[in-house]
Amino acid sequence: MAVYTEVSDDALRAFLAEYDLGVLLAYRGIAEGVENSNYSLRTSAGDFILTLYEKRVDPADLPWFLGLMEHLARRGITCPLPVQGHDGFSLRMLCDRHAAITTFLPGVWPRRVQAWHCAPLGAALAALHLAGAGYAPTRANALGPAGWAPLLARSLADGGAGADALLAGLGEELRAALDRILAHWPAALPAGHIHADLFPDNVFFLDRKVSGLIDFYFAATDILAYDVAVCLNAWCFEPDMSFNVTRGRALLHAYSATRSLSAAELAALPVLCQGAAIRFALTRLYDWINTPPGALVTRKDPLEYVRRLRFHLTARGPDAYGL
Amino acid sequence: MAVYTEVSDDALRAFLAEYDLGVLLAYRGIAEGVENSNYSLRTSAGDFILTLYEKRVDPADLPWFLGLMEHLARRGITCPLPVQGHDGFSLRMLCDRHAAITTFLPGVWPRRVQAWHCAPLGAALAALHLAGAGYAPTRANALGPAGWAPLLARSLADGGAGADALLAGLGEELRAALDRILAHWPAALPAGHIHADLFPDNVFFLDRKVSGLIDFYFAATDILAYDVAVCLNAWCFEPDMSFNVTRGRALLHAYSATRSLSAAELAALPVLCQGAAIRFALTRLYDWINTPPGALVTRKDPLEYVRRLRFHLTARGPDAYGL
Questions:
Q1: What is the C-alpha separation between B76 and B123, in angstroms, rounded?
Q2: Measuring CA to CA, which residue among A19, A3, A17 is closest to residue A82?
Q3: Do A132 and A266 meet the contact criterion of CB atoms below 8 Å apart?
Q4: Interface predicted TM-score (ipTM)
Q5: DSSP state letter for A234
Q6: Chain B contact residues (CB < 8 Å to A)
Q7: In terms of Cα–Cα distance, which of B248, B249, B245, B208 is closest to B232?
Q8: Which residues of A fall within a CB distance of 8 Å from B6?
Q9: Per-residue model confidence as pLDDT tens digits over A43-81
Q10: Alpha carbon of B113 to those of A77, B19, B187: distances in Å?
């Protein structure tokens, strides 16, 4: 459910008057997404997406996100292009929320990932990393390694009862894994702007090609290969949580063909994948414990990422991922 | 929240192969609506709505609903036109649900009703009633007067505790009102096919004209003026539950200009409005009592319609509605 803020037609028309987008023809709330309110918007100028930023997004970060999207779109990455109003700004207020209009991207995200998705995905991710290079502002990754220990501490603030209710011993397991991950975290790998959340619902396909990358609201400046690790987690596991090396190989080969991975990056894949797995395990665990039962948001199962984490803890090198 | 059934892209492509709609370009879940799962669908042939019928809709009724929509659309009513597959049928199965594709209608439904909406609404309702005349099959109104006593009984099956928890004495108030309404229910007013749920979110506007009527899944064969009464309830009350006679007058005048209301229909307006108010009070009350706290559906307040009911019980004739 992704409409938290109901926008009246009057408010929307007043908002649209700030743009050169013609007259409003239709708008509908979009059910996908969990962080912000999204509407599909049709005006006489075409199709757009209207996003109202809800409380999880820090308004201070919005100019960075929108600036990155504009930078990437101008460099040929098929991501939403923020639309500027008469005043030259793409960010303004609507219904007491920060809001922006971006271009609509055609395409369909894969509900069931297949091996053939992973090569175009890998190539698109590498192209994203290369295109981001010229964007000068940086954003620290709040959900990167420095954020994991505080996040775990907040989830275990009840003495670990909530975590243990989900799975006996879970608090201890995560604490031990996190210690190990942080002790081995690579100090000096190539960094740049990463998407950091490139899950299947953020990648559109048309004709077996990537037609769009969306939802840059976790993007940050961090280790590039960590973004690869996020994708290996999100795209390459079977429903039974076994790792599909065919997908992993396709993703890594296609990525490397556009931006080659160094020996140090390849060697770090296991710990980077461990880090990516624990990052999603931790945020899901925190949400699991702190989402009231009556909430409209569907809680995601933290254990799916605990099981991925266990796999990565057994990986000895890049061969575990199909190389 | 209106996506109960998640449709995979593979399943959707296989489904679309039954139609002459070209290739799939995009689809998104629509957040509006509470009864069925709705997707906005873009193919190389244009824009459409895909609806999966969830458990509240009796599959046996679907051919009647789709047949009515097709009948109305062919007679110039701007309602969704069911799209037929290669086999000539517009109803088939998808993800274990009955499903249909209909045409997309541009327009915006009014989040905040204003007086100027009510004349085009009244005219559109009358046109709908006239256009429905040639559709021979009938459908009994399960949520018409014959259904209200059983519905109240089910809501009071706990001895009235659930109703009284919402408002002390509510069960008794509804029982007394229902007795009075059924005792005065008009026996012989003009009947035909009614929408029966023409709330603002089912009416699209463009350029101050009605551009679309949607959601015919409560439609039935019943007293035509009862449909007017549903609209007087849904469109003509202020947020403080006072009746806005300017809106009522506009609605009734515009309706009458297209299909004149007889003296008997006008005289029956108070009891028809009482019936319409108790119908929505009763279904909301039933849902209120029977919706588990963790459900994804937002419960609607039954008391909004209890307060409307109280107003209608004081009405002595059509002048209470602005005539």
A1: 13
A2: A19
A3: no
A4: 0.74
A5: H
A6: 1-3, 6-10, 12, 24-32, 40, 42, 104, 106-112, 204, 206, 293-294, 296, 298
A7: B248
A8: 111
A9: 999 999 999 998 888 999 999 999 999 999 999 999 999
A10: 42, 38, 33
Instruction: Enumerate residue ranges in chain B where pLDDT < 50.
Output: 1
Look at residues A117, A40, A108 and name the one whose alpha carbon lies nearest to residue B16: A108
The verdict on a CB contact (< 8 Å) between A30 and B25 is no
Burial of A191 (0-12, 13-18, 19+ CB in 10 A): middle
Look at the block and give the residue holding tokens 């989830």. Answer: A155
Total number of residues shown for chain B: 323
Taking CB atoms and an 8 Å cut-off, how many pairs form between chains A and B? 82
pLDDT tens, residue by residue, B99-112: 999 999 999 999 89
Output the CA torsion B105→B109→B115→B120 (10° steps).
10
Facing residue for B29 by CB, picked from A6, A32, A293: A32
- The dihedral over CA atoms of A173, A174, A177, A183, expressed in degrees to the nearest 10, equals -140
**Of A108, A202, A291, A297, which to mutate for an interface test with B (greatest number of B Cβ within 10 Å)?**
A108
Query: Which residue in the block uniquely carries the two structure tokens 């919706």?
Result: B291
Please identify which residue in the block is written with the tokens 């939403």: A80
Write down all domains in chain A, each with its CATH number in brackets. Answer: 9-103 (3.30.200.20), 115-321 (3.90.1200.10)
Nearest to A283 by CA among A154, A194, A179: A154
State the pTM of this model: 0.83
